[in-house]
Structure formats: C-alpha cells, structure tokens
Amino acid sequence: MTKNAVTLHDVAKMYRRGVRDVVAVECVSLAIPRGQFVALMGPSGSGKSTLLNMIAGLDSPSSGEIHVDGVALSVLGDDGLTDLRRTKIGVIFQLFNLLPSITVAENVALPLRAAGVVTGVRARVTQALAMVGLGERMDHFPEELSGGEMQRTAIARALVIEPTIILADEPTGSLDSETGRDVLATLRRCVEERGVTILLVTHDETAAGWADRIIRMRDGRCESGTLIPRAAVV
C-alpha cells in the first residue's frame, strides 16, 4: 500500500481564453502522506481551487500525473472517477449544499445511497454524526441547525464513506471565528482519531494553523511546505 494519499508529478492546467492560453497551475509536484493535515494557501487566482478540483477528479490536468490512494486518475474514465469520489474522496465546500427537504441523517446518507449501499447505512450515518458531535440532531432538518452544525453535517457526509482523503475548500469561510474553530477542531479529530488525510484550501492563517503543514501557492506554483508544531494550535 502506498504511503501517500495524494501524489502529483509535474501537474499543469491551462485554459483557453479568447486567443490566449492562461496557466492556472504550472508544474506542481507534491506528495501528501496518509494521515497528514495539509493547508493550501495563496491569494485569489493562485490555483488553489483548480488544484483541489483536479485531485477530486472534477477537472483534468493539461499535463502531468495525479495519483490518489495509489491510483492514477488518468487511467480512469468518468465512471471510474465517480466511483473514486464515492469511495475514497470526501469533499467539503464553503456552502453546505444540504438538501432542505430531508433530515440531517438522510443528508449524510446520500453518498452511501448514491454508491448503492443498502446494508448498515443507519449505523454508518450514526457513527459519522457522533464523530462530529451531532448525534442528537440526526432527525432534525437543516433549517433547524446553526451554520456550524450545518457545516459539521457536511463533514459527516464526507466521513460516512470512510474516505482516504477529505478535500475541504474554504469550509470556514462563511462562519464566525468561534464556529469556524469548532469546525476545524472536528477536522483535526478526523485526522487524529480516524487517520484521514485532509487537504484544506483557506485564506485564513488561523485556520491553516490547525494543519500539520502549510503549502503556499502563487501564480500557479507551489512554494515549499512548512511543517507546524502541533503546540502551535491553541
């Protein structure tokens, strides 16, 4: 089994805009070990979200190779990439993307239903919600939750598939500082208690301080990563 959850080798992404090519990501090589919490930082337009989308298989690189859990994304077709997201990759966005007409538990169960899982669904949903401290809220509807609770529901939805990696794109961007801290503490527990690998895209230095390593992007390139002593988080 590979020791890295994610490996990128000379990954680049170019877009055609009018008569010219725009480079969004340029020659990025990166390894994220299993069980590491990595924060990806950089100004708007630096390529952070583009890189995240390529790792999720939602976008394809113009060149280079991406491996997730030892699997080369380039050899997977659309069905293979969809299956990878259903079984290996949990995704958390800034907007919670919860369906308002169904309960918290039913929202969390959606990835299992999409993957065709029919047995043990309730137990896995209960476990995921307990992990994020929402065991008592599973039969509530999204409109009955606070912003922090909705984001923790989104984390539980990502966790329920028992992923190798969670990709989180500005998950605290729409939350106040105290609520954001609760969400980041939940992500930290996912790493420490479940060994999940997390790649967090953020503009917030405080949020990045919860990570094991910060990688900064500028003009489509990754700068050297910085390891963070765990005592730095207060």
Count of strand segments: 11
Number of helices: 7
- Relative helix content: 25-40%
CATH homologous superfamily descriptor: P-loop containing nucleotide triphosphate hydrolases
CATH topology category name: Rossmann fold
Return Rg in Å.
17 Å
Spatial gap, N to C terminus: 34 Å
Class per helix and strand makeup: alpha/beta
- Indicate the multimeric state: single chain
Q: What is the level 1 CATH name?
A: Alpha Beta
Mean pLDDT, all residues? 89
Query: Which blocks of ≥5 consecutive residues have pLDDT under 50?
Result: none
- Reported CATH architecture: 3-Layer(aba) Sandwich
Number of domains: 1
Q: State the major sheet.
A: 7 strands, mixed
SSE series: EEEHEEHEHHHEHEHEEE
Query: What portion of residues belong to β-strands?
Result: 25-35%
Gross morphology is: globular
Throw out a few tags for this protein:
single chain, 234 residues, seven-stranded mixed β-sheet, 7 helices, globular
Kindly describe this structure.
The protein is globular and about 50 Å long. Helix content is 32%, strand content 28%. Helix 6 (177-194) links the parallel strand 7 and strand 8. The protein has one domain (35-61, 76-232): 3-Layer(aba) Sandwich (Rossmann fold), CATH 3.40.50.300. The model has no long low-confidence stretch (mean pLDDT 89). Strands 3, 6, 7, 8, 9, 10 and 11 form a seven-stranded mixed sheet that branches. A four-stranded antiparallel sheet has the order 2-1-4-5. The longest helix is centred in the C-terminal third of the chain and has 18 residues, at 177-194. 41% of the residues are buried. The protein has helices spanning 48-55, 78-87, 104-114, 121-131, 147-159, 177-194, 205-208, and strands at 4-17, 20-33, 37-41, 63-68, 71-72, 89-92, 165-169, 197-201, 213-218, 221-222, 226-227. It has 234 residues and is an alpha/beta fold. Helix 3 (104-114) runs parallel beside helix 5 (147-159).
